[in-house]
Fold:
Amino acid sequence: MQMNPRQIVTQFAHLLQEELFPVLQSFVGPMSGQMQLLASVISMAPLERLLSARRAATGRPAKDRAALATAFMAKAILNLPTTRDLISRLRVDEALRRFCGWGSVKAVPHESKFSRAFAEFAGSELPQQLHESVISATQKDRLIGHIARDSTAIPAREHFSREARENKKAKKEKASKERRNKARFAKAKAAERGTRIQRQRHQKLPEMLSGLPRDCDVAAKKNSQGNEQYWCGYKLHLDVADGQVPVSAVLTSASVHDSQVAIPLMTLTSQRVTHLYELMDSAYDADAIHAHSRQLNHVPIIAPHGRRGTKKSSQLPKVFPDKPTPQLTWAQQDRFKTRTMVERVNARLKDEFGASHLRVRGPAKVMAHLMFGVLALTVDQWLRLSVPG
Structure:
């Protein structure tokens, strides 16, 4: 039986990229840059292994889901807005269709099957596992100088429940009042008292992540002109290593402040890679974040917030809010300049890898959609770093 290009990529994944592409071109003809990136993602991500391990005794074969997962990778790489656009592209692009594993136009599944498969991938967190495997394979033995941390707004096409948000706020106020009235509150465990950031310092990673809100809601932020911009949706929080390689990602509700995700993110990143410095803007300037970063044997470089500035720095004009104040040494300010790499990653993710084309609802599906793009971006950046010269 003749192998399809995806099987060829899997079989020859040990080859260098410059050796792999000629082998593929003999089967599918000339390959564009996007098709070469798709081949690289397939060769680096252990898709077949993860799907085979997850397959139940009854149900669709792993190869069926592998074809669909490859198609969703292609959707992110080609920056296609909808699944319907992906299917239309598969019907006219023979090379792409063969890469996914379908030999003819009739073999391409119906849109409903794509939808069911995507829900399955989102529920099992397949894109997150693929990204983690790529990071482990490429970054585990690398000593990383800097990790830049930031978030980006993810507008969604779904309605948030105002009533549910009000009920949540009322319950939170009631719980807070009850805690204040308890006589034994002072003797409570450290992981059960204080602010969320303070509690996170005594929690394990799963508990930290489960305590972060993930439902769609409304938030606002000030733009570079000082005007407030509102959006309904989510926030994607990223840790990016030198070379603009995304290492970790966490999705939260839009209204979650960046500082609430700093400790979970640095804990997650510390489990995946070895790094020295952590670069953050003034939104992360909190004592608990400084202390936890040092506890993990990292050096935090955080732009001082105006509320914590010295008298001298508080008198400076706030024309550039993110610019380091004199509280940072000249060496820290020089390192802090590299923090812009996380902003470039956020921009590429939205402009080139589908993050601005969100057509799914619910945090699980939104995260899966974004992580297919993060996976492709990670492989692309790593290949750029690996090219000699």
Remarks:
- The longest strand covers residues 228-241.
- The chain is about 50% helix and 15% strand.
- The beta strands are 143-155, 217-222, 228-241, 245-253, 274-280, 299-302.
- Residues 363-386 form the longest helix (24 residues).
